[in-house]
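Weekly modeling sync, notes
Attendees: AB, CL, MP (scribe)

Item 1: holo prediction request
CL wants a bound-state model with pantoate before deciding which constructs to order. AB pointed out that an apo prediction alone won't tell us much about the pocket. Agreed to run with the ligand included and paste results into these notes for async review.

Input as submitted:
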Amino acid sequence: MTAELPVVGAIDELRRYVRARRAAGARVGLVPTMGALHAGHLSLVEAARRAADRVVVTIFVNPAQFGPNEDFARYPRTLAADVEKLARIGADLVFAPPVEEIYPPGFSTKVVMEGPACADLEDRFRPTHFSGVATVVTKLLNQAQADVAVFGEKDYQQLLVIKRLARDLDIATEILGAPTLREPDGLAMSSRNIYLAREERARASELHGALTDAARRIVEGGDIGAATRDARARLAGAGFDVDYLEARCAETLAPVVSLDEGPIRLLAAAKLGATRLIDNIAVRS
Ligand code: PAF
């Protein structure tokens, strides 16, 4: 606990805090994170602040959403620095539970989804990821009982998964998406950018560049298949190992072949060395 910003680790304390504020007539916003906070996360806190009177930030590196060969063990854990940043921008409470608080002995339940969780994008490469995300987010939303919760558009498939689960499971918390924050060269802010070697970091903005060019071509009437194929080739030429770069319906993530089908999102994931980057942008006509 710091002087300005209380940090709690027990679900009861979180519940007590939210219940008391709501009973006093305040709207409470929730920002779930895994910590290692950067300006992108802080912009989610600011979005929550605009939508609510009090903002609770959760910091929990959720083991259930990492695959066996992923970076759970080395995921950056920077609680003290995170709390300092949150105190500075005026968050009201941090919920940073230990793993046993979220997954006590005997824990046996998983939220397994279809729809946007099975869009053949992230789920193709991380088959257990969205079940881990859906399970922990369902728990955090139930634990906090906030009025509104904010998630970044950076993880666009995740955002649609969370909107869907809240609707399907009758969770009363309103789910809001907030825009991706970018570095000056266009690279989407991410806690994993610190893994990039200096020379990889210099090339990493190609991902956003390739998406932006493909979106422009599509808006100008170019063929969607050709635009995405060329973007994949451009990334491969720049040394990326491309998992996917695809045009999808922005609401359902169904494949699209024409602008007439409604709002389109371009979504991509590609590895640069050992670091996997994801990004997405809206195709705006
Ligand atoms: O986007 C994230 O940081 C995580 O997936 C989330 C939503 C906090 C769940 O662990």
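Recorded for review: The mean pLDDT is 97.
Action items: CL to compare against the apo run; MP to circulate these notes.
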